[in-house]
Records
---
Amino acid sequence: MTSIPQAGPVPAVGVVCLKGDEVLLIRRGRPPREGEWSLPGGRIEPGERLHAAALRELYEETGVSARILSLVDVVDGLFPAFHYVLIDYVAVWVSGDPVAGDDAAEARFFAVDAALGLLAWDETRRIVTEAVRIRDQDVTA
């Protein structure tokens, strides 16, 4: 069984930032899942609204700005010594070239198919696939 911290689950946001047929990934610079490719995101600050947290985390980790399209899903992130409630959004790139910042070791756009091959966690692959489907159905994207 996974060791869960006594403080309880931590609310966090993640962003599937799409630019054409590419998705923005970061290589995690800290636990959990340090060294793995993942979505930009992080903890919600006290008093911060979800969309604002998602866009802030995206910018802090990558230098990229985007427009949120929709909620994708809410996922339990149960990792050794960590329990996050991950609120994942799909967004469309607006500006900026990816540069690793905050706790990201790397940040760059990948073709969606290539990105799916880099992602180690099944849930992240599912979220990216669902985000592309949502974006493709949104006529305003």
Note: The chain has a mean pLDDT of 93.
---
Amino acid sequence: MEVILAESAGFCFGVKRAVDKVYEQIETGKKIYTYGPIIHNEFVVQDLEKKGVEVIESEEALEQLTEGTIVIRSHGVPKSICEKIEKQGLECVDATCPFVKRIHKIVEKESAAGRQIVIIGNAGHPEVEGIQGWSVTPAIVIESEKEAQEFVPEAGKKLCIVSQTTFNYNKFQELVEIFQKKGYDI
């Protein structure tokens, strides 16, 4: 049997960075939590749990903490979670992928400037939920051609379209073309 190794294997830059940050925090000896699983990899999450890292799954669980370090997962979280961690006086290590963080900043700025935010991605994905949480106004998530065809922006609103970083590029292009053909101010 011939084994062919892919040119690239393993974690992407943002995921590797996030995982490394958690392992670095373990070395401090402090109580470490991640807000949501640090990545979509049960083996890594289980290894971290064996080393004492707990996964927090909700704001309610976060509110119960009085001490410890919270590591923000690679997918990022809504701005309100970051604010809650700070307000509670907990230490925060932001391991959000820099590419995702860039989208957060764009969404925050453009929504504050009055643009309607359209996120092309999978509704319910942690990254998309995090991106939505940085918009000053409600963001719309579009995943399919049908949703793109049916979408009508708020009257007089300019659009800012962003994408989930792991969303299929070709499908993203197809959906953006639908918006462009409609003549929206993007």
Note: The chain has two domains: 13-96, 99-181.
---
Amino acid sequence: MAKKLIYFLCTGNSCRSQMAEGWARHLGDDQVEVHSAGVEAHGLNPRAVAVMKEVGIDISHHQSKLIDPDLLNQADYVITLCGDANDRCPMTPPHVKRLHWGFEDPAKATGTEAEIQAKFREVRDAIRDKILTFLHEEIE
């Protein structure tokens, strides 16, 4: 079976799409090819890197990237993780299955450092759960 190409998109490609890329690579093993990008490039969020490291996934080498039209057109799945990316994502060809998974932006969390980290963990775990379901229902 050929690997399915999954392209995760978010506004800035700094948190949610980066965590989704890390989870999908980790959980999808050799069944998927995974990329992420943003409609803007905001840089990799260090808190996202830290909470992924807590679960044994290293995304510190990831880079915040803009949407690549070639990848967008080659993808089997384009998954937007925020409303802004869903609204601003370029058109995709008919063969590309587009999905929207709206997750709260942990980078906008306020409060103490512990409260902010808790929000990052909450979003990280919600993304993991969604990817596990997706892999089971769509890929396996």
Note: The chain has five helices and four strands.
---
Amino acid sequence: MTTLLALDTATEACSVALLHEGRVLGRYEVIPRLHAQRVLPMVQELLGEAGIALSAVDAIAFGRGPGAFTGVRIAVGVVQGLAFALQRPVLPVSNLALLAQRAHRERGVGLVAAAIDARMDEVYWGCYRLEAGEMRLAGAEAVLPPERVELPRAA
């Protein structure tokens, strides 16, 4: 069975999750500007709770954005270092796609318009449609003022 480590630092929240033996463990903290200090200790906490070494991880996923540039850069740096040291694959995942997939899982919806505050009166934006059990991007992710957001036309 695959052991997957995932982390996200693209927003004010810092989160780390571990999938091991079919069980998901996680840590989530809203800690603006403290991601760099907390992300690795959070990883160590999860590994300790699961009772496994970092070397047991088969792959590492991370929120590739959109999101705060510094936060995304922290995730990329941490994941790149871990993956290089462990010689493991890296799985970049869209933060907007993650929101859409969660909406499907928790609410059973098949169409999702996902948005994240991009500051400066703009939003990161994407629309997703359910295809074969997975939320897929319908159109393109964008950053724009909220009043310019448009839903994609029906296929």
Note: The longest strand covers residues 122-131.
